[in-house]
Design a protein that fits this description.
Order of helices and strands: HHEHHEEHHHHEHEHEEHEHHEE
Low-confidence stretches: none
CATH topology of the largest domain: Rossmann fold
Mean pLDDT: 84
Strand content: 15-25%
CATH class of the largest domain: Alpha Beta
Structural class: alpha/beta
Helix content: 40-55%
Radius of gyration: 21 Å
Number of helices: 13
Strand order of the largest sheet: 6-5-4-7-8-10-9
Shape: globular
Number of domains: 2
Length: 318
């Protein structure tokens, strides 16, 4: 991060860019979540021309990053990418205005939008539960299971499978570790998981959101997310929860889609994101309180029909 002082003229420009209530509202939303113009219009209840004009000014002043997804531009404010004076300026502005009634209304509408997004994923998994194992192997290849298990190890560990789906990973892990805890928010998936691990004494299943786990702090030795991150409206919150339940030095494993441009695939699968760049995943893990974050692309299985995958690992800070 660049900690050099800004030129006075540049500082005046940045202060001027914050001297508008609408731009403050947009930054507060985009600090929390990557959003498109249409979604921002819905939340702040303003026309597209107004929102686009403010976004352009904020992007010109380097408050925002944006990327193309199909026909839409998605915007985000990434705190770690702001210059230090700009970061301090934003934190001061946010502290003064964040509790206001307009910002509270924005937050409620953002929460509703994220809940609607989650419903898309729920609908997909409700219909896919019976065929999920076969579909996952067709899309991503049979190498997914060995890749995740191989990244874990010790037999005395308690391992959490976040987004356990039909319990395929949990079942295989149960034979090599002390205890497996599976968590999923889909009743249909958990029904299939319970049938799969029936009679397996060291598997425990919970219905819950991965952003709000029913597990004690520092209660697990390892946690994994396999093909879950792209379904989450707020992946940073889920990774923070992952870090919370890990013991100091505990291991996190994430396997998911590399960034791709197949919008039809994203929609078909009910996913929120079109994958992630390795550097993006490493930053998410570090921001969640992890160290030694590493993310690498996996060699695509020649039989796989879906986008390529990455494997990321990190350890909980002591």
């Amino acid at each position: 991060m660049n900690k050099a002082a800004l030129h006075p003229d540049k500082l005046v420009e940045m202060i001027a860019s914050l001297a508008d209530a609408t731009r403050l509202r947009l930054l507060r939303l985009l600090e929390q979540q990557e959003l498109g113009v249409a979604e921002l219009c819905e939340i702040v209840q303003m026309p597209q021309s107004t929102v686009s004009r403010h976004l352009k000014l904020l992007a010109d002043q380097n408050w925002l990053t944006n990327r193309r997804q199909a026909t839409a531009n998605l915007y985000r404010m990434v705190m770690d990418e702001l210059e230090e004076p700009a970061r301090k300026l934003w934190l001061l502005a946010r502290e003064q205005v964040a509790g206001g009634p307009t910002f509270r209304q924005d937050q409620l509408r953002l929460n509703r939008l994220l809940q609607d997004r989650r419903g898309d994923a729920q609908a997909f998994f409700a219909g896919a539960a019976e065929q999920w194992d076969k579909l996952r192997e067709q899309l991503y290849g049979p190498g997914l299971i060995p890749a995740v298990i191989g990244a874990l190890v010790p037999a005395h560990w308690v391992v959490v499978d976040l987004g356990c789906g039909t319990g395929q990973l949990a079942q295989q892990l149960a034979g090599v570790v002390k205890k497996v805890i599976g968590v999923d928010n889909s009743p249909a998936m958990l029904k299939a998981a319970k049938a799969r691990v029936r009679g397996v004494s060291n598997v425990e299943l919970h219905e819950a959101e991965v952003e709000n786990l029913p597990l004690a702090e520092e209660s697990c030795d390892a946690a994994m997310m396999a093909l879950i991150l792209t379904y989450l409206p707020q992946p940073q919150e889920a990774l923070a929860e992952m870090a919370r339940i890990l013991r100091p030095g505990g291991k996190a494993v994430v396997i998911d889609l590399l960034r791709h441009d197949r919008e039809d695939f994203r929609r078909q699968m009910g996913q929120q994101a079109m994958g992630f760049e390795p550097t993006e995943v490493e930053l998410l893990l570090r921001n969640a309180g992890m160290k030694e974050a590493k993310c690498q692309a996996l060699a695509p299985d020649p039989r796989a029909k879906g986008p390529a995958l990455f494997l990321a690992t990190a350890t909980k800070n002591p």
